[in-house]
UniProtKB/TrEMBL annotation:
Residues 1138-1161, 1219-1228 have a biased composition (Low complexity). It holds the Pfam family PDS5. CDD domains: PDS5 (cd19953). It comes from Sparus aurata (Gilthead sea bream). Residues 1296-1306 have a biased composition (Acidic residues). This is PDS5 cohesin associated factor A. It is found in: Nucleus. One of its GO terms (biological process) is cell division. InterPro entries: ARM-like, ARM-type_fold, Pds5.
């Protein structure tokens, strides 16, 4: 566009000034120039565009004002007035300016722009003129004239820079509005925005500039919002060049590109409409740092409060979510941190985030797993509805993380949620119900072995679950209802926590008592504090400090005193901490360790006042005035759990119960109909009643008659507690005598009335043996054995089940079980065998086992009742073995019979016996030889039982090793403590295994190998002190002995040597260090092994090379032509186990929940009937009626079976008692004058499946047996055969897929976790859930 010809001024270029204004030249002073200019300004201000005459008249003046004299005048007042005149000239002469020269116009606008800097000082006297100038320029849009100039961009850049630099917080809204109008008109009416001009705007958005001038940021933000439609294209071009094309040189702001995107998005997302796809491209960059920068940016954009980017741009959102799986750790970490803001600001995106957070919760990086927990917990603390059950589940999983930092964060996070929503009910009952599982989960963690976990659980319990800062009544109400709502395992954990704290108080008391002696030598288990190594050093230092500071000892004595109140405890802890604090030491690890100790021993919850508050709550529940229903528990549950709580506290805080009010309330509980309530109340009296006799005689006089009645007619548990409670009183012996006299005339014909008296009699004889041992002997001989145990008065239920519920057991059998327990308690009370009563009892118990529980062999008793009696007999022998005087007289045969109970045919018998065995061993109450019994568990058909046995072995071995470390005197008793010394007992036990009849047969040797490996695998996990060589030396030494059980029996000795060779084979395959020299010469038990002369040397190899190869790699199988057609189905990724599992992998023995049989083969032409499942109601079923059964008892579709499962199955060996004919053999031998082996001898103790190739009806076990005996034997073996024959069925896992069991063996499992058949199995917890936390 061409500028028009400049107008010619009137008067031939003569300058006409307004009236009264003289000529303005450089000859006059500045003051005079200013004075005259003000009049010119006034003239131009009054003119408008319609004054054509005046416009022409003052045209020359307008041109004169643009001369160099004015534009470069040094006086700022002159320049300001000239600028105002020029602005008015542009207004008057619009739309065409009187100046036609491009250079002149540029000079004029740059001049005017410079004058706008005066707007900065709002207090200046000339500010109004500056404002007038700005207002005039904005209103007329004078700068739009510059669009025609080639270098107009320079003018605009200078203008924008000036306006952004001068704006400040003293400017009013009008100033800002005029600036906005001026700049927006330039952007919106121009042809485009250059990069330089865009930079002048965007630079104000950078955080550094933003913080320097907030008003400039606001001005830029408003400008961008107003011009979004125009400027968006320019912004997109800028980011395209920087992000996509990588041209960072196009702008000085290139390095701030991500900050700018964030700001622009916050201003108006429309500004970035074309930029977002470019970010998706950058998310896939190969540069990790670049991806990290983009992720940080997008995290802020997606997580912003009102951001709708995720819904508007789903492709970008999905691409961003993909970065949760980025290979770069900082990127994944940034994504996880973003999730917290996203969950809080955008709950609708929680579903999208859940799956990605699930994966990151298992991230290999500890920091990422930690931040996942922080993310979820922070969102949950803001609003529980923001986190779904899945997200909370991730936190729950991480409480078992391998890293302590992650576990701690998860546990503390859950504790905070519990306190906020369950304790304080900040979001109502519905939210509290959503996370009610937290309390149980947190207490379950007390089962973990780590002392750090235990300490944190104790801290959480004291601060979050039952805050110790609450008032006593509120605190006890919280504890009362918490205890009522906990699950069984959580209750056990809480009980164990109190017991551990009580035990530690006892240790500290021992320390303080030792300080009263001249020489102090004290050893504290460092396992009670974190970091055992440092803890031991700190405790030594603490012991030294106690010796030097008597006041500190006094405070500590007060803290652990039974009468210490909760308030006193807080004062004591504060005083002790203050004494040990060193101001100049910022970090004091010693003080931290002492704090851990004080926190564990301080009674911050329970004192006399607390027990009174609990008893009042219990009374309210009994009266029906408590808030039980509001707290979510029924009154009955509250009463029962409340008494259980008091019972536990009576163990740990007995002194707190000594008040008449407490005991009066407990007396009321004794009169309630609920058996459990009365039982708990009696036990509380038993635990706390030592001072009742001297201080509360009225309570005693009321209590004893009630106890007397409970001992006679209460439940067995009540009778036991009642007898013990009576015994604590000085007058107890008189009342026990009265009870004993009442029980003299018992009637075996009414077994229902026998059970409680038998329990009471047993405990009376155990508690007062001097008084009742002799009178009991006649009762035992004439009534217990002769009249009760040796008689079957009723016929049992012939339903074929191997186990029934307690309610279904016949009263006569329950009485017999209690009679067996009575025998044991009587003997345990006497603790001597002078009368040989123990020998007689052991023979009786052995006979009970040999006869499968049917001692009379009249076949009146049912299978399930026989199982109960076998369990009672095995448990009785095990109980007697805990007393040294009786352990010495238990013969190897009786030990073997007892051990074989762990292979009983009934699942529940195996399970309960294993539990009893483990608990006795882990408390070091049973001799080491009984640990060998667990080796037989390798033959258990149920995977859970094998897994449980392995856990028991691990725990027992760990306990024994720890005991040896902690007790220096244990070195003298290594033979009875060192776990490696279990190997001789195990070898002897396996050599006398009733199944080990053909010592050169592969299948039997394979079983022996698996039993050996089951034990050796755990023993050989580490080669501490060259233990592998010690084991080898021990086995080699056994080969140089003879079997002490039958030293002249060549076959028995051969079996012993064969087992030794298998053991040596297993050890050699496991360890390369076993051939080194043994550190010590092993000592062998003479009760089991007969040491030979030095001349005796047994260097024979009893395993052939072929057999060794078969044991190593498995027996080779022929491959028939059709093998590929009939091979069983397999699961990809799992190895097929070559051994056929001998029974189902289920824990049920009832017909309603039958167990599936293992897959096997059988000749259909030979057998037409199949064995019923283990412990099933119907022992014989038709083969064509067999359905596949899953592990939970449901029938499966036959089409899912293997092709040959419908027609083939094999006999399944059952682990149990021997056939009765075997038990009858000694009796027949005695009639013939042949001495029978004591306790049954070889071949007894387990029922074996019949040989399928034999004819059961024709085979005779003993040629000298009578015809009737042969018929009975044939019938029995026929029944066994029917049980032994089974159908092929798939063993199904919990998800319905085929589970091919992988047994452990040295050659099959080379890793460090060999033999752990339960590794990764979800049922592993169930297998050991019965343990108390202190045992597992």
């Amino acid at each position: 566009m061409e500028f028009p010809q400049q107008q010619k001024p009137a008067g031939d270029g003569k300058i006409i000034y307004p009236p009264g204004v003289k000529e303005i030249t450089d000859k006059i002073t500045n003051d005079e120039v200013v004075k005259r200019l003000k009049m010119v300004v006034k003239t131009y201000m009054d003119m408008d565009q319609d004054s054509e005459e005046e416009k022409q008249q003052y045209l020359a003046l307008a041109l004169h004002l643009a001369s160099e004299f004015f534009l470069r005048n040094p006086n700022k007042d002159v320049r300001l007035l000239v600028a105002c005149c020029l602005a008015d000239i542009f207004r008057i002469y619009a739309p065409e300016a009187p100046y036609t020269s491009h250079d002149k116009l540029k000079d004029i606008f740059l001049f005017i722009t410079r004058q706008l800097k005066g707007l900065e000082d709002t207090k200046s006297p000339q500010f109004n003129r500056y404002f007038y100038l700005l207002e005039n320029l904005a209103w007329v849009k004078s700068y739009n004239i510059c669009f025609e100039l080639e270098d107009c961009n320079e003018i605009f850049i200078q203008l924008f820079k000036t306006l952004f630099s001068v704006i400040n917080n003293s400017h009013n809204q009008k100033v800002q509005m005029h600036m906005m109008d001026l700049m927006s008109s330039i952007i919106m009416e121009g042809d485009g925005v250059t990069q330089e001009l865009l930079d002048t705007i965007l630079i104000n958005l950078i955080p550094a500039h933003k913080n320097l001038n907030k008003q400039a940021y606001d001005l830029a933000k408003t400008l961008l919002k107003r011009t979004v439609q125009t400027i968006e294209t320019c912004i997109a071009n800028f980011f395209n060049q920087v992000l996509v094309m990588g041209k960072s040189s196009v702008s000085d702001l290139s390095e701030h590109v991500f900050d700018l995107i964030q700001e622009l998005f916050a201003i108006d997302p429309m500004l970035l409409t074309s930029v977002m796809p470019q970010l998706e491209f950058k998310l896939k960059s190969n540069d990790g740092e670049e991806r990290l920068a983009v992720v940080r940016l997008l995290a802020k954009l997606f997580g912003a409060k009102d951001s709708e980017l995720a819904s508007q741009n789903r492709p970008l959102w999905q691409c961003f979510l993909g970065r949760f799986n980025d290979i770069h750790v900082p990127v994944r970490l940034e994504c996880v941190k973003f999730a917290s803001h996203c969950l809080m600001n955008h709950p609708d995106l929680a579903r999208d985030l859940t799956e990605y957070l699930k994966v990151r919760s298992h991230d290999p990086e500890e920091a990422i797993r930690h931040d996942v927990i922080v993310t979820i917990i922070n969102a949950g603390k803001k609003d529980l509805n923001l986190v779904n059950d899945q997200l909370l589940g991730f936190v729950r999983e991480r409480t078992l993380d391998k890293r302590w930092r992650v576990r701690k964060e998860a546990m503390m996070g859950l504790a905070q949620l519990y306190k906020k929503y369950c304790l304080h009910h900040e979001a109502g009952k519905e939210s509290a119900q959503k996370i009610t599982w937290i309390k149980d989960k947190l207490l379950h963690i007390y089962y973990q072995n780590s002392i750090d976990d235990k300490l944190l659980v104790e801290k959480i319990f004291a601060q979050y679950m039952v805050p110790h800062s609450l008032d006593t009544e509120e605190k006890m109400k919280c504890l009362y209802y918490l205890y009522a709502c906990l699950d069984t395992n959580a209750v056990k954990a809480l009980n164990e926590m109190w017991k551990c704290q009580n035990m530690l108080r006892g240790l500290v008391k021992e320390l303080l008592d030792l300080h009263k002696l001249p020489v102090v030598s004290w050893h504290t288990p460092a396992t009670n504090l974190p970091d055992a190594g440092k803890a031991q050093d700190f405790m030594k230092k603490f012991n030294q400090v106690l010796g030097e500071d008597e006041k500190l000892r006094v405070q500590l004595e007060m803290l652990i005193s039974p009468t210490c109140s909760c308030k006193q405890a807080e004062i004591c802890v504060r005083e002790i901490t203050r004494k040990l604090t060193f101001p100049k030491q910022p970090t004091n690890p010693f003080l931290e360790m002492v704090k851990f100790l004080l926190e564990r021993i301080a009674p911050v919850h329970i004192d006399s006042e607390a027990i009174s508050a609990l008893v009042k709550l219990l009374n309210k529940s009994i009266e029906g005035t408590a808030d039980d229903d509001e707290e979510g528990v029924t009154p009955d549950t509250a009463i029962r759990s409340g008494l259980e709580l008091l019972k536990v506290l009576s163990f740990t805080h007995p002194t707190a119960f000594h008040s008449a009010e407490t005991y009066e309330s407990l007396l009321q509980c004794l009169k309630m109909e609920d058996e459990k309530v009365a039982e708990a109340a009696i036990q509380i009296f038993r635990n706390t009643g030592q001072k009742i006799e001297t201080e509360l005689q009225q309570i005693r006089s009321t209590l004893i008659p009630i106890l007397h009645q409970k001992a006679k007619r209460g439940t067995p548990h009540q009778a036991k507690q009642a007898v013990h409670c009576i015994h604590i009183f000085e007058v107890g012996d008189r009342f026990l005598t009265e009870l004993f006299q009442d029980f003299k005339n018992l009637n075996a014909d009414v077994p229902e009335q026998l059970i409680t008296p038998l329990v009471s009699l047993g405990h009376i004889s155990m508690l007062a043996p001097d008084q009742f041992a002799s009178p009991m002997k006649s009762i035992v001989a004439n009534f217990i054995v002769k009249d009760l145990l040796m008689n079957d008065r009723s016929v049992g239920n012939k339903n074929g089940k191997l186990w029934t519920t307690d309610e279904e057991v016949s009263p006569e059998v329950l009485a017999k079980v209690q009679a067996i327990k009575l025998l044991v308690r009587w003997l345990l009370g006497m603790k001597n065998n002078q009368s040989k009563s123990a020998n007689s009892t052991l023979r009786l118990l052995s006979a009970m086992l040999v006869s499968e529980g049917d001692l009379t062999e009249q076949k009146k008793i049912s299978k399930s009742d026989m199982s109960r009696l076998r369990l009672a007999a095995g448990g009785a022998i095990m109980k007697l073995a805990q007393e040294p005087c009786y352990h010495d007289i238990i013969t190897p045969e009786q030990f073997q019979l007892c051990g074989l109970v762990i292979n009983d045919e009934c699942y529940q018998v195996r399970q309960i016996f294993a539990q009893k065995l483990h608990l006795a061993l882990v408390k070091l109450m049973l001799p080491l030889e009984y640990l060998a019994v667990f080796a037989l568990c390798a033959k258990d058909p149920v995977k859970e039982r094998r897994a449980h046995a392995r856990q028991c072995l691990l725990k027992n071995i760990s306990v024994r090793r720890e005991y040896i470390k902690q007790n220096p005197l244990a070195q003298e008793k290594l033979v009875s403590l060192l776990p490696e010394y279990v190997v001789p007992y195990m070898i002897h036990l396996l050599a006398h295994d009733p199944d080990f009849t053909k010592p050169h047969e592969y299948e039997q040797l394979k079983d022996i190998k698996e039993c050996l490996w089951f034990m050796l695998e755990v023993l050989m996990t580490k080669n501490e002190n060259n233990s592998h060589a010690f084991l080898r030396k021990m086995v080699e030494n056994i080969k140089q002995t003879k079997d002490a059980q039958c030293p002249e029996d060549a076959k028995a000795n051969e079996k012993l040597y064969i087992v030794c060779d298998v053991a040596l084979f297993v050890i050699a395959n496991k360890s390369t260090a076993c051939h080194l020299d043994s550190p010590k010469d092993p000592v062998l038990p003479t009760k089991f092994f007969l040491i030979q002369d030095k001349e005796f040397k047994n260097d024979k190899e009893y395993l052939s090379t072929e057999m060794r190869q078969m044991l190593l790699s498995g027996k080779p199988k022929p491959a028939p032509v059709l093998a590929a057609v009939n091979k069983p189905l397999t699961v990809p990724g799992r190895r097929i186990f070559t051994k056929t599992t001998t029974a189902s992998d289920t824990a049920s023995n009832t017909s309603t929940n039958s167990s599936p049989l293992s897959s096997s083969t059988i000749n259909k032409n030979r057998y037409t009937q199949s064995r019923a499942q283990e412990n099933n109601e119907n022992p014989v079923i038709k083969n064509d009626e067999v359905k596949k059964v899953s592990s939970n008892g449901r029938q499966l579709d036959p089409q899912n079976a293997t092709p040959d499962a419908e027609t083939e199955a094999s006999p399944v060996k059952r682990r149990g008692r021997p056939p009765k004919s075997a038990a009858a053999a000694p009796a027949a031998a005695e009639k013939e004058g042949v001495a029978a082996p004591t306790g049954g001898g070889a071949g007894r103790g387990r029922k074996r499946a019949a040989d399928p190739n034999s004819n059961p009806s024709a085979e005779s076990v003993n040629s000298k047996m009578s015809k009737q005996q042969q018929n009975d034997e044939g019938t029995k073996r026929q029944i066994d055969l029917q049980r032994a024959v089974g159908t092929g069925a798939l063993i199904l896992g919990s998800e319905g897929d085929t589970e091919i069991e992988l047994e452990s063996s040295p050659e099959e499992v080379p890793s460090g976790r060999q033999g752990d058949s339960n590794s990764g199995d979800k049922s592993g917890w169930l297998a050991v859930s019965w343990f108390s936390p202190g045992c597992v």
